[in-house]
Amino acid sequence: MILNSINAVLPLFMMCLIGVLAKKLNIIDEKTGKKMGWLAYNILFPCSFFLSTYNGKGKIDLQPKTIILVIAIEIITFLLAMLVAKLTFKEPDERGPVQQTIFRSNMILFGTSLANYMLSAEQAAVYTISLLIILPMQNLGSVLGKEIYGNSKDGKIDYVKTIKNVLLSPYTVAIIVALIVVKLNIELPQFIKTTCSNLGSAASPLQLIILGSSLKMGGLKSNISKLIIGVFIKLVLVPAIFVPVIILFNLSYVESFIVLLLCAAPSAITAFTVSQQAGWKMDYVNQMIVFTTILSLLSLTFWMYILQVLV
């Protein structure tokens, strides 16, 4: 079972290492990485989500208790992140990145990639549908964090624009369109399904390579103690709190997988984007993304093993 977990997680890191190497060899620079990221975000992942939802016939096979647990995890993690931010840093432009990196989990890039390796096509469809619940809550938590810690540029948050961006994000649109197609009993031509499949299959490898090429380090010495606290809370404390709950709730394997990733996935790259837009200090964000991504190889393998044994 441990070998299965390692085999599921290790390929993700191998692709990240390819990105690191590509950056070292000047194959991918920052500008190229942004363009590749745009392609993955706006086209490749939406194709993957669309086809996964379509093939799964749009079924939301999540028990009510699972949905309640997901909501509870988001609320508790948000409050915990706010507390840690207050205790570890003094300035708002330092507290904001702490809140973002502890609260936001990499459910799209890292989670979807891991789901594609560990779940069947039908189970992966359930994971994709669950993002309709998880992503809006993650975005809401980010907006609240930006409001509480302020925007060092102009102090204003455009809520209308934020809500619009959530509802019209490529991921949300792809899933909703797929649900409409299923509801109308439209049978897609094979060439459309093949095209979506081919494009979708390129999403995870490409984005993981981009992740590797975007990892940055700087100012590590001054943040080391606070970084240790953040990584511990993100990868150890939060999953340690909720894994027993997963077992107690007697969730299915795919539901356990979804909840575990919500608790134990590394910090989302979008935390970098949010912090950058808010004008916060960026060193801590980069370091949290780097270390939670690297160390989750060990922590996720451990937590997945625990679930495989006990669920």
Structure characterization notes:
The protein is mainly α and 311 residues long. The protein has a single domain (2-310), classed as Na+/H+ antiporter like fold (Up-down Bundle). The chain contains 13 helices and no strands. It has helices spanning 2-24, 30-55, 64-88, 92-103, 109-118, 121-149, 159-167, 170-183, 190-214, 220-249, 253-264, 270-278, 283-310. Helix 1 crosses helix 9, helix 2 (30-55) runs parallel beside helix 8 and helix 2 runs antiparallel to helix 9 (190-214). The longest helix is centred in the C-terminal third of the chain and has 30 residues, at 220-249. The mean pLDDT is 82.
Which secondary structure elements does this structure contain, and how are they paired or packed?
Elements: H1 2-24, H2 30-55, H3 64-88, H4 92-103, H5 109-118, H6 121-149, H7 159-167, H8 170-183, H9 190-214, H10 220-249, H11 253-264, H12 270-278, H13 283-310
Helix pairs in contact: 1-5, 1-9, 1-13, 2-6, 2-8, 2-9, 3-4, 3-6, 3-10, 3-11, 4-6, 4-10, 4-12, 4-13, 5-9, 6-7, 6-11, 10-11, 10-13, 11-13
